[in-house]
Design brief:
Layout lengths: L5 H5 L5 E9 L4 H15 L3 E8 L7 E9 L12 E6 L5 H4 L5 E10 L4 H4 L5 E6 L1 H7 L3 E2 L2 E2 L2 H12 L4 H11 L2 H17 L1 E3 L6
Parallel strand pairs: 1-4, 4-5, 5-6
Antiparallel strand pairs: 1-3, 2-3, 6-9, 7-8
Helix pairs in contact: 2-6, 2-7, 6-8, 7-8
């Protein structure tokens, strides 16, 4: 895994990295987008934004949130139509999240699933990473109202594959967004997800 997408994402001068989080109300997509933005700022990116994108926030309803990470000031605040990275918390949203034009050419899709990237069965000019975030949350007894907390483990998957933010920056970002004890508990699951994420390149030239 030494050759992550880091060279692709980080190596572009004055690049804007656009991330869309796809989940359902109650899964914490907005918080995940905020933590990523905080971690990216700590990492040294001067331009970061995060925001809910669209959809009702009622529990169980489809919801998206976005994070923009830039080497310079962020001057774009419109909805992200086509993302560099799509993070999918709920596998039932896979088709919607990866539909035509939703992920940029040579982009990346990260999916919470028990399947391997080869088993996912989706086609596109993007790379695929998978991690069983739900299983990891249960393993670490990370839940809220009996539901596994899957948003934070997926930050570990994103860190491992994209190289945009380090685990150290994510840990610091967590502590800015939640109480220290809770942040430490979540970070254990993030580290496990980092270690267990599976990744396949769609284009060997990436």
């Amino acid at each position: 895994m030494g050759e992550s997408l880091m060279a692709f994402f980080v190596g572009k001068a004055m690049a804007m990295h656009e991330v869309i989080w796809h989940g359902r109300g109650g899964q914490g997509v907005v918080l995940a987008a905020q933590i990523l933005a905080e971690a990216a700022y700590i990492q040294g990116f001067p331009g970061v934004t995060s925001a809910p994108t669209f959809g009702p926030e009622r529990r169980g309803a489809p919801l998206t949130a976005s994070t923009r990470i830039s080497d310079g000031p962020v001057r774009t605040f419109s909805q992200i139509a086509s993302a560099d990275i799509g993070v999918i918390l709920d596998e039932s949203l896979l088709e919607i999240a990866t539909g035509e034009g939703k992920i940029k050419k040579n982009g990346l899709v990260i999916i919470n699933t028990t399947l391997t990237p080869e088993q996912i069965g989706i086609d596109g000019d993007f790379s695929i990473a998978t991690v069983d975030a739900s299983g990891i949350a249960r393993e670490h007894h990370l839940s809220m109202r009996g539901v596994p907390v899957i948003n934070t483990p997926l930050l570990g998957a994103l860190s491992m594959v994209s190289g945009l933010v380090s685990l150290e920056s994510i840990e610091k970002g967590l502590k800015e967004k939640m109480p220290r004890g809770r942040a430490s508990f979540n970070f254990q699951a993030i580290r496990t997800a980092f270690e267990r994420t599976l990744y396949i390149k769609s284009n060997p030239k990436l």
